[in-house]
């Protein structure tokens, strides 16, 4: 098959996208269960709203009252009749009122026990003793530029007697100044000063204290029997506006030095009022609140204050007979209404915060899983660059998240949640879209902090539930506290969980108020008036910063980039890799101490570096790796100046005991760690500067199988084949051949999830992945581990066939595998290459002796030793136990025929149970070199 060349950006992106879609298809039911979570939550909120409607919104106290009126025909039956005349005062608010009642205008006055009395700063007020008798006057203050005019006006403000016109009682009340201590309501369909049980006060300039006048008002069933109590009014002049302001302030809520409430009913600033100008400022108390904390419509009371001063000015101009009667106040007619408290919208921010943040641990666990199982790095080693990975992964998670939120919008709207229905859908979609992007960027950023899925998942769920609970019990409380600085609210919103909660809180408030008033929720015209514009700015800025930080950390950590890589000139060329060997420090000392074969390999590498082109796929020049000191231990020299050249078409075997440095060497060549010094060249590319390009022509079979448990063997090979730029029929053919070569094609095994494979099947699949697409360089770490003899033999055949146009570096502990597959072997001990050559050369070089074994009875052991001394004077005993002895016989001292004759002669003298003569094996060479290798190590 022709070399397809490196895959383009779009090809690699397409491969990852196809793999992700296949992965989602395999996890279809998990996705469905995830999408059902907001659906169940919406149903839960609807159920709460239905329960609240039945118990509160539709309760008898929160709708217009009804009574059963008997029929006039005397049949004993009754007809249910509703209306304000059949309602309790609490129900009347909800009734249809086509013609609202006319209420006499009332002046808001303080309670008798809190009316202003004499303090050190205002000695013209009455003595405090009046509070014991309840006869303290209602004080009204005046100020302005003309005291004479002011004195005349406040003299005309109040009447001196109580007058009632019996023919028109309402008009008669208008000639008097009526006051109430009852606070106004949000509406005036039923004025609390009339409808409640409190008494009304007739405020006069002179009156008998506590004189009472009973009267009734209205018609059944809204007929109110009231008691009119005489209260003296006290009008006082102040020279400056600041005096009035201070007195009003100090008298309110224990603000005076004596710590007493000393309330003033009202105050007037006449400013420049004269005969030709009437210019007045009115002070009134707007701080009254009802039980729920809402401020009622106190402006209903202010109209009477304005009328009083207006009448006083008219009388000043035209005489005491001139007056503008203020007969009544009346509410606008209304249709029947119902209590419409949308409790689902009020509690929505908590639940929807949890629903939206629920994707955080889902995406985070997926990213950390790829890191934990090293799937990200194995994809990168097979050619998947950072660009395609980031683009497809980000777009993939964004698509899933937006589908999730669109389902949430559809579910919520379909089952009637006002939270979604009343607020403009375009605002909601924009908000969710922006926050989803911020959340995905945060996940990429946070994933760099975790290496274990369980730890990441626990931390993510703490973040999810903690954000919701803190938002409800802390952040919302601070938002609604008007005394809390708004600047600190902005600071708190910088925390992503609170910015999400604030946006949802704004949606809930607009939906709640819109439903209560029968209006729409949030529209774009409300955008700047709410906190949404601030939230949008925060989310957009944090999205950009989090994405940049995540990409930077990923480049530094996973790609091994320098932390200041962004400061480097991208157009600056890398320094030449082919430099004279004399420039390498310490190389002379190493050459003098190394074995001739290792020295010859080093000289070969030096010669290759001087050539303009080479057929060698892998060239390592004095490669070193030193791990820094840790926990008090000295630095670890893992690889000590390795020089190696592997041509295309050769399988090079690396042998060595555990800890010899083989894995560190493979990790440097595959880009997992950076060399401390030296250079590695793969296909003419430097592993330190061009690793991304090296990956496009590389295949890796790691020691541990790195596979997706839900993807089949065929899907794995299709993915990695696409990364190697295989397409169409070439891809299909390559996948089928790979499956057949490793015996995974027949019996439906190819289409079985890899998670259900046995250990040997996974191993074979890993080898097939490393070889698909005919990579130029392949690294195999113990490829036949865990295989049965038949499968191992078949796998060796596949590897031997694949090496024809590929350079393979293979590590193994099987001497049989090394002898069968490897063209050359290198034995690695304590970070150094001790010897190098083909298996026959190594056995000839390090196996210069025969191994003679003989087993006899214990009393003849001395006879065996004498026999060996006669055959080979320099023989060395290497083993002795229970009559069995082993000896090394130098080949230059013995002839095999002489050994046979000596054994035959010995058999006639004593009993020989068994004997044998063997040549040196590769395993013997390995053990011998490993034992003596430490003596050849030098530190360069």
Characterize the structure shown.
Its main location: membrane. Keywords: ATP-binding, Membrane, Nucleotide-binding, Transmembrane, Transmembrane helix. This is ABC transporter domain-containing protein. It comes from Arabis alpina. It is a multi-pass membrane protein. With about 950 residues, the chain is an alpha/beta fold. Among the domains are: about 65-95, no CATH class; about 100-320, no CATH class; about 345-555, no CATH class; about 850-920, 2-Layer Sandwich (Alpha-Beta Plaits), CATH 3.30.70. It contains 32 helices and 24 strands. Strands 3, 4, 5, 6, 7, 8, 9 and 10 form an 8-stranded mixed β-sheet that branches. A hairpin with a 7-residue loop joins strand 1 (about 65-70) and strand 2. Helix 1 runs antiparallel to helix 24 (about 715-725). The radius of gyration is 48 Å and the shape is elongated.
Q: Can you summarize the main beta sheet?
A: 8 strands, mixed
Q: Which blocks of ≥5 consecutive residues have pLDDT under 50? A: 573-592, 935-940
Radius of gyration: 48 Å
Give the class from helix and strand content and strand pairing.
alpha/beta
Number of helices: 32
Describe the structure concisely for a colleague.
Residues 618-855 form the ABC transporter domain. The protein is α/β, with parallel strands linked by helices and 940 residues long. A hairpin with a 2-residue loop joins strand 22 (876-881) and strand 23 (884-890).
Question: What's the structural blueprint in terms of helices and strands?
Answer:
Elements: H1 9-26, H2 28-57, E1 66-70, E2 78-82, H3 89-92, E3 107-108, H4 130-133, E4 138-143, H5 147-156, H6 169-174, E5 178-180, H7 192-195, E6 200-204, E7 212-217, E8 224-237, H8 241-251, E9 266-269, E10 281-283, H9 299-318, H10 343-357, H11 359-372, H12 375-381, H13 386-414, H14 418-421, H15 425-447, H16 453-480, H17 486-493, H18 496-517, H19 532-557, H20 587-593, H21 596-610, E11 616-627, E12 636-647, E13 651-655, H22 662-669, E14 677-682, E15 685-686, H23 691-695, E16 698-701, H24 713-723, H25 728-741, H26 759-771, E17 777-781, H27 789-802, E18 807-811, H28 815-821, E19 824-829, E20 832-837, H29 839-846, E21 849-856, H30 861-871, E22 876-881, E23 884-890, H31 896-907, E24 912-918, H32 922-932
Parallel strand pairs: 3-5, 4-8, 4-9, 6-8, 13-18, 13-19, 16-17, 17-18
Antiparallel strand pairs: 1-2, 5-6, 7-8, 9-10, 11-12, 11-14, 14-15, 19-20, 21-23, 21-24, 22-23
Transmembrane segments: 34-52, 346-369, 389-417, 429-451, 458-479, 535-553
Organism: Arabis alpina (Alpine rock-cress)
Family: Belongs to the ABC transporter superfamily. ABCA family. CPR flippase (TC 3.A.1.211) subfamily.
């Amino acid at each position: 098959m022709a070399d397809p060349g490196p895959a383009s950006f779009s090809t690699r992106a397409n491969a990852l996208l196809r793999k992700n879609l296949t992965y989602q298809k395999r996890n279809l039911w998990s996705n469905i269960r995830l999408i059902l979570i907001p659906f169940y939550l919406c149903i839960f909120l609807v159920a709460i709203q239905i329960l609240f409607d039945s118990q509160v919104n539709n309760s008898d106290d929160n709708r217009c009252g009804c009574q059963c009126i008997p029929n006039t025909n005397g049949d004993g039956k009754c007809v249910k009749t509703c209306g304000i005349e059949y309602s309790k005062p609490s129900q009347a608010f909800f009734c249809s009122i086509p013609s609202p009642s006319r209420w006499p205008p009332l002046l808001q006055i303080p309670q008798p026990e809190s009316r202003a009395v004499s303090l050190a700063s205002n000695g013209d007020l009455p003595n405090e003793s009046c509070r014991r008798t309840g006869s303290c006057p209602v004080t009204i203050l005046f100020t302005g530029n003309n005291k004479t005019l002011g004195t005349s006006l406040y003299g005309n403000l109040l009447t001196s007697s109580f007058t009632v016109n019996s023919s028109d009682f309402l008009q008669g009340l208008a000639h008097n100044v009526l006051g109430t201590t009852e606070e106004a309501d949000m509406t005036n369909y039923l004025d609390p000063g009339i409808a409640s049980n409190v008494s009304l006060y007739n405020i006069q300039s002179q009156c008998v204290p506590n004189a009472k006048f009973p009267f009734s008002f209205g018609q059944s069933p809204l007929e109110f029997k009231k008691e009119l109590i005489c209260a003296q009014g006290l009008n006082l002049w102040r020279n400056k506006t600041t005096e009035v302001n201070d007195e009003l302030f100090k008298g309110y809520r224990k603000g005076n030095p004596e710590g007493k409430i000393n309330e003033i009913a009202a105050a007037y600033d006449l400013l420049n009022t004269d005969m030709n100008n009437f210019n007045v400022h009115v002070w009134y108390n707007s701080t009254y609140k009802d039980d729920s904390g809402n401020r009622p419509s106190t402006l209903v009371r202010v109209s009477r204050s304005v009328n009083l001063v207006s009448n006083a000015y008219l009388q000043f101009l035209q005489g005491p007979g001139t007056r503008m009667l203020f007969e009544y106040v009346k509410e606008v007619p209304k249709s029947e209404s119902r209590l419409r408290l949308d409790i689902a919208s009020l509690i929505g921010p908590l639940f929807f915060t949890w629903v939206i943040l629920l994707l955080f641990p889902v995406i985070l666990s997926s990213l950390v899983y790829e890191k934990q199982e090293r799937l990200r790095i194995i994809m990168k080693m097979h050619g998947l660059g950072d660009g395609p990975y980031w683009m497809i992964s980000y777009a993939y998670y964004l698509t899933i998240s937006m589908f999730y939120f669109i389902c949430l919008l559809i579910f919520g709207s379909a089952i009637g949640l006002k939270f979604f229905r009343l607020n403009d859908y375009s605002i909601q979609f924009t908000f969710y879209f922006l926050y989803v992007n911020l959340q995905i960027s945060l996940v990429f950023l946070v994933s760099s902090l975790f290496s274990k899925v369980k730890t990441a998942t626990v931390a993510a769920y703490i973040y999810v539930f903690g954000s919701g609970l803190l938002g409800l019990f802390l952040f919302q409380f601070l938002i609604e506290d008007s005394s809390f600085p708004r600047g600190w609210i902005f600071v708190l919103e910088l925390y992503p969980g609170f910015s999400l909660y604030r946006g949802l809180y704004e949606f809930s408030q607009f939906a709640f108020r819109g439903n209560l008033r029968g209006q729409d929720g949030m529209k774009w015209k409300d955008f700047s008036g709410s906190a949404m514009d601030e939230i949008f700015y925060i989310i957009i800025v944090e999205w950009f910063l989090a994405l940049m930080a995540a990409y930077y950390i990923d480049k530094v950590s996973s790609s091994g980039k320098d932390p200041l890589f962004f400061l480097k000139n991208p157009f600056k060329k890398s320094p030449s890799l082919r430099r004279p060997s004399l420039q390498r420090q310490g190389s002379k000392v190493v050459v003098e101490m190394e074995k001739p074969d290792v020295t010859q390999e080093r000289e070969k590498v030096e010669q290759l570096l001087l050539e303009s082109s080479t057929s060698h796929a892998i060239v390592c020049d004095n490669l070193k790796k030193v791990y820094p000191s840790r926990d008090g231990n000295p630095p670890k020299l893992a690889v000590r100046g390795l020089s190696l050249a592997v041509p295309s078409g050769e399988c090079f075997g690396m042998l060595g005991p555990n800890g010899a440095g083989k894995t560190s060497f493979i990790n440097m060549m595959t880009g997992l760690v950076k060399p401390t010094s030296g250079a590695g060249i793969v296909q003419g590319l430097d592993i330190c500067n061009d690793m991304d390009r090296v990956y496009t022509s590389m295949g890796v079979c790691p020691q541990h199988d790195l596979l997706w448990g839900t993807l089949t063997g065929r899907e794995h090979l299709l993915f990695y084949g696409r990364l190697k730029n295989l397409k169409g029929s070439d891809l299909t053919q390559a996948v089928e051949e790979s499956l057949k070569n490793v015996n995974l094609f027949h019996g439906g095994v190819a289409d079985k999830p890899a998670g259900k494979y046995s250990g040997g099947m996974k191993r074979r699949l890993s080898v097939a992945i490393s070889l698909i697409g005919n990579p130029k360089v392949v690294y195999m770490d113990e490829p036949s581990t865990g295989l049965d003899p038949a499968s191992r033999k078949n796998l060796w055949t596949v590897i031997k066939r694949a090496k024809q146009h590929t350079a393979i570096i293979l590590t193994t502990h099987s001497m049989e595998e090394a002898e069968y597959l490897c063209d050359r072997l290198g034995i690695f001990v304590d970070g150094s290459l001790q010897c190098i050559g083909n298996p026959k050369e190594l056995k000839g070089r390090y196996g210069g002796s025969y191994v003679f074994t003989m087993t006899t009875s214990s009393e003849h052991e001395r006879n065996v030793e004498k026999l060996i001394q006669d055959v080979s004077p320099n023989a060395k005993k290497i083993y002795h136990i229970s009559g069995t002895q082993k000896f090394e016989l130098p080949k230059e001292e013995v002839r095999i025929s002489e050994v046979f004759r000596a054994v035959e002669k010995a058999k006639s003298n004593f009993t020989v149970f068994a004997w044998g003569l063997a040549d040196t094996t590769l395993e013997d060479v390995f053990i011998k070199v490993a034992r003596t290798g430490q003596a050849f190590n030098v530190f360069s």
